[in-house]
Amino acid sequence: MRVLFLTHAFPRYEGDVAGNFLLRLASALGKEGVDVRVVAPSEPGLVQNARLNGTGIERFHYAPRRFETLAYGGNMAEQVRDSWSAKFTLIGFLGAEFRAAVRARRAYQPDLIHAHWWFPSGLVGTWLSKLSHTPLVTTMHGTDVRIARSVSMSRPAFRHVLQNSAAITAVSRWLAHEAQSIVSSPPPVVAPMPVAAELFSPGGTRKPSALLFVGRLTKQKGLDLLLETIAKLPATVTLDVVGDGPERPPMEKRAVELGLAGRVRWHGTQAQTALVAFYRSATALVVPSADEGLGLVAVEAMLCETPVVAFESGGLPDVVQHERTGLLVSERSSDALAAAIVELLAAEDRRRALGAAGRLHALATFAPESVARRYVDIYRAAIASAPA
Fold first, then answer.
1. Is 210-366 the same fold as 2-194+368-385?
2. What single-letter DSSP state applies at residue 322?
3. Which residues contact 348 (CB under 8 A, 6 or more apart)?
4. Which residues pair with residue 11 across a beta bridge?
5. Is 204 helix (H, G, I), strand (E, B) or coil?
6. 338 within 8 A of 232, measured Cβ to Cβ
7. Domain map of the chain by residue range?
8. For position 50, what pLDDT does the model report?
9. CATH for 210-366, among 1.10.10.10, 3.40.50.2000, 2.30.30.140, 3.20.20.80?
10. What are phi and psi for residue 268, nearest 5 degrees?
């Protein structure tokens, strides 16, 4: 079986965090007999045609080099919302992705197209699917569903993608429910993305009362609320922040205002190989996000037997089983989050039990081979249902 991935985010080099779960899925599918090729945007310094871990990639340019800023920054939606030049660049992006997808289809002759994020790649996928009479599978990851909910003028395009896909998948039950609540559609199939089970494993020595945050620093990730929570905890509790983004300067300022300058350490974005040491040394990972599509950082932590404290929001209940693999906090407040953290820090045996159970759950649900087999079944059903 040959499958063509369309995506606006895919690793640019070994260890890159951008869309790394898609490379992991492609590699795992290869072991199941599925040959994957990828169409993804370029940026300065990348060659047009490359291979990464055995997966062929065709990169496309969509604007003059200095204007190619929509992809890989993690803020495409914000740029397009706030800038007219970004809106015009997006038009070029859609056209360039479509042209690259047509070239790849002609050269590769895929049995199926798999678009990641309904926008922009899902929309481009519908055009390619109609042109080539090739079935389309579209996966929703989270940010794309938030666009459909918050931008009313995007909903006709959202409906178009759902109606013209042979199969729709969502990485969590919450995302599947959200999609159905926005437009009437058949229920999406819930199929998560894989994590690097071979990389994230337990080991090392944990620092006492050391909390960890991993994620892009945007308002949706909730770091501001976590900082307020840290300020309510004993002075011995520290926080390591791994990640970068537009909210980093105001969050660093906020930490100083709260008197946390000596308790919060800022590490910036780290390669996945470097993340292992952070998970292994942390007492617990805290995920304060609102409406998280799934929460793969929680899965990575659990694979390292690091207990997770998270808000009961978005797709996180698919990852964290309350009182079994971690703690879910139903009330979104710093007081409620602080109480859960204090409860966890006070019981070392309980942390160990949660961590051990978390690793077993993560391996069973998010290991690449398990996810790949799920998607092979989805692909086969989509191909079988396509018009002859």
1. yes
2. B
3. none
4. none
5. coil
6. yes
7. 2-194+368-385, 210-366
8. 87
9. 3.40.50.2000
10. 70, -175
Per-position b or e across 143-181, b if 16+ CB within 10 A of its CB: bbbbbbbeeeebeebbeebbebbbbbbbbbebbbbbbbe
Tokens encoding 178: 């959200």
Of the pLDDT bands very low, low, confident and very high (cuts 50, 70, 90), residue 74 is low
Q: What is the DSSP string of 2-61?
A: EEEEE-S---SSTT--TTHHHHHHHHHHHHTT-EEEEEEE--TT--SEEEETTEEEEEE-
Query: Strands 308-311 and 210-214: what pairing?
Result: unpaired
- HEC string of 338-349 equals HHHHHHHHCCHH
By the 8 A CB rule, do 137 and 379 touch? Answer: yes
Q: Is residue 278 a contact partner of residue 199, using CB atoms and an 8 Å limit? A: no
Q: Give pLDDT tens digits for 240-250.
A: 999 998 899 99
Token pair 């300067």: residue: 249
Cα(291)–Cα(192) distance, integer angstroms:
16
Q: Residue 191: which residues within 8 A CB-CB, separation 6 or more?
A: 139, 169, 170, 171, 371, 374, 375, 378
Q: Please check whether the domain covering 2-194+368-385 is classified as CATH 2.30.30.30.
A: no
**Token match 């055995």: residue?**
54
Q: Per the structure block, which two tokens stand in for 3?
A: 């499958």
Confidence class for position 150, pLDDT limits 50, 70, 90: confident
> Minimal CA–CA distance to 90: which of 112, 119, 118, 65?
119
- For 218-278, the DSSP string reads SGGGTHHHHHHHHTTS-TT-EEEEEB-STTHHHHHHHHHHTT-TTTEEEEE---HHHHHHH
Distance between first and last Cα of the chain: 17
